[in-house]
């Protein structure tokens, strides 16, 4: 039983970390897009 709990905890932690990486990447892409929009607006 103790081993099962450790495995479930590990899987939950791994899933959280992997989904967090995807979210961070998406935030970085949004920030890059925002910077490009600001740059284009400044050049007008």
From TrEMBL:
This is Entericidin, EcnA/B family. One of its GO terms (biological process) is response to toxic substance. One of its GO terms (cellular component) is membrane. Keywords: Cell membrane, Lipoprotein, Membrane, Palmitate, Signal. PROSITE patterns: PROKAR_LIPOPROTEIN. The keyword Transcription regulation does not apply. It comes from the Bacteria. The keyword Lipid biosynthesis does not apply. Belongs to the EcnA/EcnB lipoprotein family. Pfam families: Entericidin. It comes from Buttiauxella izardii.
């Amino acid at each position: 039983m103790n081993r099962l709990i450790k495995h479930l905890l590990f899987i939950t932690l791994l899933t959280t970390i992997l989904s967090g990486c995807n979210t961070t990447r998406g935030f970085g892409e949004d920030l890059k897009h925002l910077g490009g929009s600001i740059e284009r607006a400044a050049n007008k």
